[in-house]
Design goal:
Blueprint (H helix, E strand, L loop, with lengths): L18 H11 L5 E2 L14 H9 L14 H13 L10 E4 L1 H13 L5 E6 L3 H9 L3 E6 L10 H6 L5 E7 L11 H14 L2 E5 L24 E6 L12 E6 L6 H13 L5 H12 L4 H5 L4 H15 L3 E3 L7 E6 L9 H12 L1 E2 L1 E2 L10 E5 L4 H19 L1
Parallel strand pairs: 1-11, 3-4, 3-5, 5-6, 6-7
Antiparallel strand pairs: 2-8, 7-8, 9-10, 10-13, 12-13
């Protein structure tokens, strides 16, 4: 008799590292060079973690051999508090901060502490699929509110409000957004906060790209405008500080902390069960948050990420078949294929053909829990010459599909 896996896995999808990525690995083993644009992994494209962060880890290795407290080392948690206070967030202290093995672990821990079977979580569509997966794995039900192209991929507030019911526990925000690159306005955030306040919901604000915004845009931390709502803010070292492999993230709770005491106590228990997160990487947090923010140069005019975004915008505009809303933040381009020219197109099939024929790995749009089948996501991390090569390959395949 075969051993069956958990039924909870049936609702879990993570195509970013799924079937296509496995096929890409098989092709690499056969000697093919694959251009991998499916994942935001700065170290693969020559982005380095700031030297001061590496030195902070080295200098504290002797203090990293024992377990630390389950919430994380105090200097790291206090650095998060100071950053939040500088942003105007009041009433937060180090006891409200948890350090984890990346934001991914903390999303799982928070939802595990929060959800009972059948509880619903409002999640943006498109979303980062870990939010959907962690909700399902912890007995909850993902309910999607649309962030359509017609609204520049900002939330449809009216539909979001209409989805709230007696089973709703939380609203997830991803801002700046992955995959679309949308950066939400203060008006949008105020509207979301009001929905949460009226319905006694917690806001789970994924802000891992908080400083990765392009000229003319302004990022507003959710916690600054919802003092009367319990807000959990997630961030970390992976993206802004190009330190994915350090596996250091944090969640800080603010707003109506008194209402969240039971949740924080449960978080503390779950954190204790896994003992602690990676200690050496935690020593880089204080240096990262208190030092020079080098990401600003990368995103500013003529910065590397700015220039790559500009190249993609020019190439999409020149294409007969591609469209997108230029990202205001983060490190991705969320691109649509014209359905009038390609009626019935399937993003999974397109991505597989692009991989097999042109050796380019992308993330199909349906990976991000949208009903549309004509989108794909690529990262802005490669050098400009790689982007030119990729779009040449994409257009080659599209022309082949028309012939």
């Amino acid at each position: 008799m075969t051993i069956k896996s958990s039924k909870l896995i049936q609702n879990v999808r993570y195509e970013i590292r799924g079937t296509l990525a496995k096929r890409a690995h098989e092709l690499e083993l056969k000697g093919y060079e694959i251009i991998s644009l499916n994942i935001g992994n700065p170290g693969l494209y020559g982005f380095r973690t700031p030297e001061s962060m590496r030195l902070a880890m080295i200098e504290n290795l002797e203090s990293s051999e024992a377990y630390c407290g389950q919430k994380g080392i105090f200097p790291a948690r206090e650095a998060v508090v100071m950053q939040q206070q500088e942003r105007g967030i009041k009433g937060i202290n180090a006891e409200h901060v948890f350090i984890g093995n990346g934001v991914s672990e903390l999303i799982d821990l928070t939802l595990r502490a929060l959800l009972n079977p059948g509880d619903e979580v409002l999640i943006p569509s498109p979303d980062y699929p870990l939010w959907s997966a962690a909700t399902s794995l912890n007995g909850g039900k993902p309910v999607y509110y649309p962030c359509p192209k017609e609204l520049n991929h900002h939330p449809d507030i009216n539909i979001l409000a209409s989805l709230v019911n007696k089973n709703t526990r939380a609203i997830v925000l991803i801002n700046p957004n992955n995959p679309t690159g949308a950066v939400y306005s203060k008006e949008t955030l105020l509207a979301v906060a009001e929905i949460a306040r009226k319905n006694n919901l917690i806001i789970l604000s994924d802000e891992i790209y908080d400083q990765m915004v392009y000229p003319g845009e302004s990022f507003v931390p959710m916690a600054t405008i919802c003092q009367d709502v319990l807000c959990a803010t997630f961030s970390g070292l992976s993206k802004v500080y190009r330190a994915c492999g350090y596996r250091v993230g944090w969640v800080s709770f603010s707003g109506e902390i008194i209402k969240g005491k039971g949740l924080l106590d449960s978080m503390d228990l779950l954190a204790a069960l896994r003992l602690c997160s990676n200690v050496p990487g935690q020593w880089a947090v204080q240096t990262a948050l208190g030092g020079s923010q080098s990401i600003k140069k990368l995103c500013s005019t003529n910065g590397r990420l700015f220039n790559t975004r500009k190249v993609i915008t020019n190439l999409v505009n020149k294409s007969e078949y591609l469209n997108y809303i230029e990202p205001s933040g983060a490190m991705y381009a969320y691109i649509s294929i014209d359905e009038r020219a390609f009626p019935g197109i399937d993003d999974q099939d397109f991505a597989l053909r692009l991989l097999e024929d042109e050796h380019v790995l992308i993330a199909p749009g349906s990976s991000f829990n949208v009903p549309d089948k004509n989108y794909f996501r690529i990262t802005l991390l490669p050098e400009e010459d790689i982007i030119y090569r990729v779009f040449k390959k994409i257009n080659k395949l599209l022309n082949k599909m028309l012939s």
